[in-house]
Amino acid sequence: MATLTSPTSHRLVYVPHNDLHATFLSRATKHLISVDARFKDLLQRNHCHIYSPEGLKEGVDPYKSLICGILSQQVSSAASRSITRKFLLLFTDAVDEEGNPPVGFFPMPHQVLTKKPEVLRTAGLSGRKVEYVLDLSIRFADGRLKAEDMVHESDEAIIEKLVEVRGIGRWSTAPNVRNSDVGAEMFLMFALKRPDVLSTGDLGIQRGMAVWTGKNIAKAKGNTSKWKYMTEREMIEEAEKWRPFRSLGAWCMWRVQGPSSAPVAP
User: Fold this and answer.
1) I need a surface site. Which of 107, 129, 143, 193 has the fewest CB within 10 A?
2) What is the pLDDT of residues 15-68, one digit of tens each?
3) Who's near 47: CB < 8 A, 6+ residues apart?
4) How many domains are there within the chain?
């Protein structure tokens, strides 16, 4: 089980998984290999920390995860670190010898709402990202979004609430798409570590699955449609046999063409 930290009280609750955290990855791996032997080599070459016993024990703060996703959207890793640091320093005077905020520090939603948009922009946020951060903070502050609810609600119920937030879509769009959204399905996989999520709209997963199923992805060159590598129906049908561990299967699809093609967990 993964630990969930409530952004309003910081008390610890638990995200339920189908299996105990100590055996989840081994059982998921065994199942995937049973339906397609190629998963054995892929998982041996790529350790999945997210669903490992250690990964599932890590704390999860939904508010922090979503805010950081917004801050890092459409910028380089270096720029993301710089923006996040400046953002945190807007809410604390405590810094270490290198001028960084305390490890583990993150503002509460109501604290973020005390800052005017022009102040938030001094951290390097675009006007649009400021709107996204404030909308998300309002929803956590007024209770429309609750970390505690995310323990028991279904994947779809959580997605429905998140896509109402400005800047959050069902899936994240391609890196070169301007103003692309933070993906609710990525949040389910990487933050809440839900076991059976298939993000069909993610081009990385779609491309990997196309290669996995023997399609010639070179033919997709120049194709600008959402389903440029394979259709959503084809993806769903291929992944049906991965249930109830589609999250791990999707994680593997990012690595079909090597680790460099995989996303970095928020």
Assistant:
1) 143
2) 655 556 789 999 999 999 999 999 999 999 999 999 999 888 887 899 999 999
3) none
4) 1
Residue 21 lies in a domain: no
* 160 domain-assigned: yes
User: What's 152's domain CATH number?
Assistant: 1.10.340.30
**pLDDT tens track for 159-172:** 999 999 999 999 86
HEC profile for the chain?
CEEEECCCCCCEEEECCCCCCCCHHHHHHHHHHHHCCHHHHHHHHCCCCCCCHHHHHCEECHHHHHHHHHHHCCCCHHHHHHHHHHHHHCCCCCCCCCCCCCCCCCCCHHHHCCCCHHHHHCCCCCHHHHHHHHHHHHHHHCCCCCCCHHHHCCHHHHHHHHCCCCCEECCCCCCCCCCCCEEHHHHHHHCCCCCCCCCCCCHHHHHHHHHHCCCCHHHHCCCCCCCCCCCHHHHHHHHHHHCCCHHHHHHHHHCCCCHHHCCCCC
Residue 164 falls inside a structural domain:
yes
> Which range (123-127, 229-233, 236-240, 254-258) has the least confidence?
254-258
Q: Is 117 within the bounds of a domain?
A: yes
| Residue that is written with structure tokens 């649009």 in the block | 128
- Tokens encoding 107: 């503002």
